[in-house]
Amino acid sequence: KLEKATSVIMAQGDTTLPQHPDLEKTFQLDGYLRTYEHEIKRRYSCFYDLVKRIEQNEGSLEKFSRGYETFGIHCKGDNSISATEWAPGAAGLYLRGDFNDWTIEEKYAFRKGDFGRWHLTIPANSDGSCPINHESKLKLGIKLHNGSIVDRISPWAKMVGRPKTVPIFEQIFWNPPEEQKYKFKNTHPRVQGGLKIYESHVGIASWEGKVATYKEFTQNVIPRIHDLGYNAIQLMAVMEHAYYASFGYQVTSFFAASSRYGNPEELKELIDAAHKRGILVLLDVVHSHASKNTVDGLNQFDGTNTCYFHDGSRGTHDLWDSRLFNYTEWEVLRFLLSNLRWWIEEYQFDGFRFDGVTSMLYHSHGMGHGFSGHYDEYFGLNTDTDSLVYMMVSNHLLHSLYADFVVTVAEEVSGMPLLCRPLIEGGGGFDYRLAMAIPDVWIKTLKHTSDEDWDLDSIVHTLINRRYAEKCIAYAESHDQALVGDKTIAFWLMDKEMYTHMSKKSGDNLIIDRGIALHKIIRLITIGLGGEAYLNFIGNEFGHPEWLDFPRIGNNESFHYARRQFNLVDNDSLKYRYLNNFDRAMIHLESKYNWLLHHQNYVSLKHHSDKVIVFEKADILVFIFNLHPNNSYTDYKIGVQVPGTYKIVLDTDAEEFGGHKRLDHNVTFRTFPEPWCNRANHIFVYIPSRTAIVLAKVD
Fold first, then answer.
1. Distance (Å, rounded) from C-alpha 456 to C-alpha 529?
2. Which of 145, 350, 428, 509 is placed for a possible disulfide with 419 were both Cys, Cβ 3.0 to 4.6 Å?
3. Could you tell me which of 357, 334, 326, 337 has the C-alpha nearest to residue 397?
């Protein structure tokens, strides 16, 4: 209620934040946090004070976060050019480009203003036209105090491009005529059920060996996503990055949509097409660090080692070889908060997956730190208050202005308490965190444990081990596992056999049979137990083979592995279709019953020798897993809480999913009113080996 009220009056400059958090509910949810009450209040006070300072100095947080309207290079209504840059360490600034034959001229020198800002105005041409043409190339000349001038790109550039002959990006002045600007036709969707995210990379979203485009993604991939039943797309590698193989995580231009895939209007069309089908689009936003590039990045923008970043060791991430933002710097806050607003206001994104949150939260960046879960690890001196407060302000801004639709996700592995609780409760304000331990437990199990020795306790514990009332996004495998040097779950399961036995005509193969069976089971138990939302990386739904490897010197700049082979799943003679069919059925079943919205995860059975797991969801669903490689069980006794008649609504062993069709879906299961496994009733079922079924109450 507070945040919705805030959105109404924020434009007037009053966010009506309470001066102190209300921790009553916080301590009801977790009494152990009382020990850290002072630290929780201190963090909230730092957040509150920063918001108030912004309001006092800038009028409101809403105005402060519209820096993109002033900073950067703009064509005004009268076709004059207005440019403002923040470069406190520079001795001078110049604008040059196609419009003046790339010369450094005093008439295009910026005027020094207050607080490290520089300003330039170029009048319209005598005929009233803009002096800088649409798609002209531009650069800033930064004059250093030694008199030399170095090339830079405006940090606020809306588009940058890489010339074919030079491996350095340059700014493209994007100012299309009105008739060429994309006009949005659809509003932000309101997803009512559980969030089911299809994580995507536009450039690899084609079976061809090339960089795919926004247009191709719109035409070819969004219909697939909609058919599968996912209601959200998470787009990675959209913020411009000079190094393609960085997966988009070495950002060089924060306001520019990557020109590798097309132009800004085509990205808008992509998002609008998703919205038309009721699909949210989340941006993988990287505010945790920035590329070290100088000529086409933020690093040393004004000629100093600071500007947007900390100096010294605090300003460098040793593992990522990148620069770290100074979240206490006023103009850095304006830049980053405006960046969030820009992607929503200009492109109509519906929210963000914040990358590298663990790195931001701790001075150690989480490196060499195996978090034990003791609260001292979260509320001690290792926590970086400045970074945490920035994320709190970001969530406050987004949930105040866009309360009806915005979603924020934290990529966070340490388990920081309260990160996904409301700000008023002393929390971080995120809606979800990624359940990053789940992919790890699956890979460790597949790598190091035979099927007969799978540790059901460890698997189930990992799936349900999350903070109460803090929502998590479950996923069976991460995009990192697809990269060269590692393997997807499908490739760990089936490896080289995928080259010879994925044809339906190739006959039976024990490795492929096992792989297809376990691939389905792993995904079903993950979405069933692992969180309040679910995520799949592009192509993994159909068991994409091999690995992902971007063009680089080491592979002769090959695109062979930098693609998603949708042609495999489109070929009805291949077994990939089975996995795709199952994923579709699983996702649509969740949409029907909305079990992700139900928090209860009562696991009634973990039978180690039988390798059977049973749990209930959404009051009327019973999930039954037989992980045993050989044993099938007839008349197996299962505890059920709600009495009634049950039927099979999903069966991993069904023929259309590549199974052996060992179950009769016409059979009904009637409960008996005798307790079993701490449940009030029981039923008897047949569960074949390496099979999972979902039963639904039908009366």
1. 13
2. 428
3. 337
Active-site amino acid positions:
355, 411
Element housing 390 (H / E) = helix 385-401
* 493: helix, strand or coil: helix
CB 319 within 8 A of CB 367: yes
Model pLDDT, residue 14: 39
Of 255, 256, 406, nearest in space to 338 by CA: 255
- Whole-number pLDDT of residue 1: 31
Q: Of all helices (H) and strands (E), which one includes residue 587?
A: helix 576-593
pLDDT, tens only, 133-186: 999 999 999 999 999 999 999 999 999 999 888 889 999 999 999 999 999 999
pLDDT of residue 481: 82
Residue 489 phi/psi, 5-degree rounding, is -60, -40
Between β-strands 92-97 and 681-687, what pairing exists: parallel, antiparallel or unpaired?
unpaired
Which two tokens mark 673? 């009113």
Specify whether the CB–CB gap between 543 and 490 falls below 8 A. yes
How far, CA to CA in Å, does 33 sit from each of 13, 25, 26, 27, 453?
A: 33, 11, 8, 6, 38
User: CA neighbours within 13 Å on the CB side: how many for 323?
Assistant: 23
In terms of phi and psi (left: phi > 0; alpha: psi -120 to 50; beta: otherwise), the region of 352 is beta
| CA separation for the pair 137, 585 (Å, rounded) | 49
**Amino acid identity of 6?**
T
Which residues of the chain fall below pLDDT 50? 1-14
Superfamily per CATH, domain 600-697: Golgi alpha-mannosidase II (2.60.40.1180)
Percent helix, strand, coil in the chain, to 5, is 35, 20, 45
pLDDT at 166: 83
Listed residue (1, 2, 6, 158) closest to 72, CA to CA? 158
